[in-house]
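Morning. Coffee machine broken again, so started the prediction first thing and wrote up yesterday's gels while waiting. Chain of 115 residues, entered below exactly as on the submission form.
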Amino acid sequence: MDGIVFYATERLDAVVEFYVERLDAEVRIEQPDCTILGYGDFRFGFCARESADTCGILTFVYPDRDAVDRAHERLSDVAREEPHGNPKYDIYQFFADDPEGRTVECQAFLGGVDL
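Came back before lunch.
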């Protein structure tokens, strides 16, 4: 089975551009007021609305620390922190903000976890 997580947005074009240009997501489907993006098997969409959904975390999983570091370079102006190890979850990660303030996490599993 597949699924898609949707978020309402007040800034559809800017938000889509952020995920495509800075996080390497791909536009999968364009609809009249919604855009569905994909990053590997991760599907998420944004729909133009009068208010934005900004709760939750969009987590992008990378294969290793180097890929997380490269993501941090692309997001350095919106990153909340430097990449770091998180021993509780055995991950390497950092958090950033998208154009509407949604939390974006970039992480790699250190223990060889394969989703």
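The domain at 5-109 is CATH 3.10.180.10 (2,3-Dihydroxybiphenyl 1,2-Dioxygenase; domain 1). Going to sketch it on the whiteboard this afternoon.
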